Amino acid sequence: MSFEVFERLEAKVQQAIDTITLLQMEIEELKEKNNTLSQEVQNAGSHHEMLVRENEQLKQEQHVWQDRLRALLGKMEEV
Running DSSP on this structure, what letter comes out for residue 79? Predict the structure, then answer.
């Protein structure tokens, strides 16, 4: 009888070891995925900053062109 108990205990220990091993593998996969996503977020942040700067530059250029156009329209009205 004690041999059966020992076999069941051994099976449960083996099942626990297998579960722990699978969970450790899953943790490693999730860590890798997390690192990849963190890098993607960092790259997206850098790209966002670049686009914000470009947008500001384009807005400034638009204002310059609007001012020039207003000046030309003002000169045309004087004529």
Answer: -
